[in-house]
Amino acid sequence: MSSTRVLSPQVILFVGRPTDLRKGLSLLFEAVGILNELSALPLFQLWIVGGSQRELNVISEVVEQIAALQSLRSNGRLMLWGRVENAALCELYSRALVSVIPSYSEEFGIVAVESMMSGCPVVAARTGGLADIVSNGESGTLFPPGDASTLAAVLAGYLRNPQLRTVQSEAARLRAVTLFSRSVVYQQITKLYQEGPTVNRQAFMDLPGELEPGVLEKQRLARVKEILRDEGLSFTRITNTHHLVFRIKNGEKNWCVKFFMQRPSAQSLLFNHAPRLNPIRGTVISYRRVLYNRNNPLSLVIYHAEEHPAPLVIFEWATAPEDATSLITDELVLAVAKQCSSYKCLTNDTALTEYLDKLEIVSRTREERDLKEFDIASAHLNSCMTGEWLLCRSHPQVELLRMRILLSRSAWPVPEAFRIRALQLIELLDKKEFTIEKPELAHGDLKSDHFLLDKTGQIRLADFEHSRYAVGPLDFAIWLSTSIWEKPQFSPKETWDRVKNIIPEPRKQFLSISWIVAELLFRALLAFSRGDPDGLARAERVFAGLGLLLFNNSVTR
């Protein structure tokens, strides 16, 4: 259990008939029991709303039979509200961190709509109407029905970073108001009756995953027309990622505009942040990273950039290679990574000295307290890009140490087989002495989608907003990690051969493999915390094959 003391623990809310087995309250109770066993997790409250007095009596008896729930109740952290007036529900929703709907079956999901209307993100089973109402990752999170461990992992992510609730709150309310307000529903019903048998009922029932452009988005595009002094521009949305990206055209003229939106830090869903480190990403942080690389020869040419009133960058248009598979080889990736690392090399200053000193200490002690001190030093070093102190994964051996500590302390509700296999591979790599050297600039998210060609045919890289200073061949390791992650059949020998063929130096081979393991472990745990447990099994298969291969190889000795 966490020793963290908070005056107002975050609220996990359940609204529904508590004794209706279809509503899955027992599954939530199981997930709460799992949360109770996780280490370093902020305190929380569980509120159960709904049910008659008879139902409350039944649930109260159940609570007394389960030690974890009994402990919550005795500490004032479990409340059985019973039936409340509809007018009072909106206040309960607004006070909750998340509204949990763990139903085994659900025809529609009115509680999900009510929650979102009040700006409360929804954690729901991917079943029935819930899968359509909740936009996964935007207005809440969906998880496999009946999976208590994944539900616990998702809730742990929200508890570790309440900013996730803040980011999703606006999207949840916008989606609910746009799709389910009375005026919209009345219009749809009227249309259904007016058109009679000719109406496309499937189109009527299907809900869009993405909403039509809202007022704010239209204002942003109007701002671009103002900047380019051209009212005849046409805009085409070209990405569905966190940020808004549009292709701008007027005749032969082409640009690309990117608006940087707020999003929670992925690291903060898995790790408890030090209070000094910012748990938010996007907006000015991403914007400043892109501007930091403005003169990088690999960067897209920037036509215009402004931080206020909303961070945006207008780039000259570049195209994806027609035959990316043959063009983007391992050799090209490594060459691009080396070119990137030569840009804005760090100078010997206080931040770099502090970084190397803290790295040397954590390499000797392997202690959590020194790991936290290193995180602060790494954040200070990388603040030269953004002016913000952020948790930056900047050294592969440090990241493996972090994972070893947290896996050993059951920070996540992963299956025991996964935990053991991951720890075995980490311990195999952990035998090497730490590499103490000056970090170099990395793109930070090098994958095929980010390779573009400008109008002269020169290679350019998109999305420098993940850029950071790191030790070892991070970009090449991310490239290989993405290949492994997306490939159904993983070959550890093929991956090892690709590392050896491109990187001749054993020390850098080791750092590359360490980054690959750290990155795959991070991806698997992050997917788990976002409601997708399949990544755990995929990573476990990778670790099994790679562990046996490395055990017989001198690079780990």
Number of strands: 17
CATH fold call of the largest domain: Aminoglycoside 3'-phosphotransferase, Chain: A, domain 2
User: How far apart are the termini?
Assistant: 37 Å
Largest sheet: 6 strands, parallel
Q: State which percent range the strand residues make up.
A: 5-15%
CATH domain class of the largest domain: Alpha Beta
Calculate Rg over CA atoms. 25 Å
Helical run tally: 23
Count of spatially separate domains:
3
CATH architecture of the largest domain: Alpha-Beta Complex
Strand order of the largest sheet: 3-2-1-4-5-6
**How does the overall form come out from the CA principal axes?**
globular
Query: What is the structural class?
Result: alpha/beta
Helix content percent band: 40-55%
Low-confidence stretches: 1-6
Mean pLDDT: 90
Task: Give your account of this protein's structure.
- Helices cover 50% and strands 13% of the residues.
- The chain has a 6-stranded parallel beta sheet, sandwiched between helices. Strands 7-8-9-13-12 form a 5-stranded antiparallel beta sheet, sandwiched between helices. It has a two-stranded antiparallel sheet with strand order 10-11.
- It has 23 helices and 17 strands.
- Helix 15 packs antiparallel against helix 20 and helix 16 runs antiparallel to helix 17.
- By secondary structure, the protein is of the alpha/beta class.
- The protein has helices spanning 25-37, 53-65, 67-74, 86-95, 110-117, 130-133, 148-160, 163-180, 182-195, 201-205, 215-228, 266-270, 283-292, 324-327, 330-341, 350-365, 368-386, 396-408, 416-429, 474-486, 492-502, 506-529, 534-551; strands at 10-15, 44-49, 78-82, 98-101, 122-125, 140-143, 234-237, 244-250, 253-259, 262-264, 280-282, 302-306, 312-316, 440-442, 451-453, 459-461, 468-470.
- Helix 1 links the parallel strand 1 (10-15) and strand 2.
- The chain folds into 3 domains: 10-182, Glycogen Phosphorylase B (Rossmann fold, 3-Layer(aba) Sandwich); 215-301 and 306-316; 326-556, Alpha-Beta Complex (Aminoglycoside 3'-phosphotransferase, Chain: A, domain 2).
- The model is unreliable at 1-6 (pLDDT under 50).
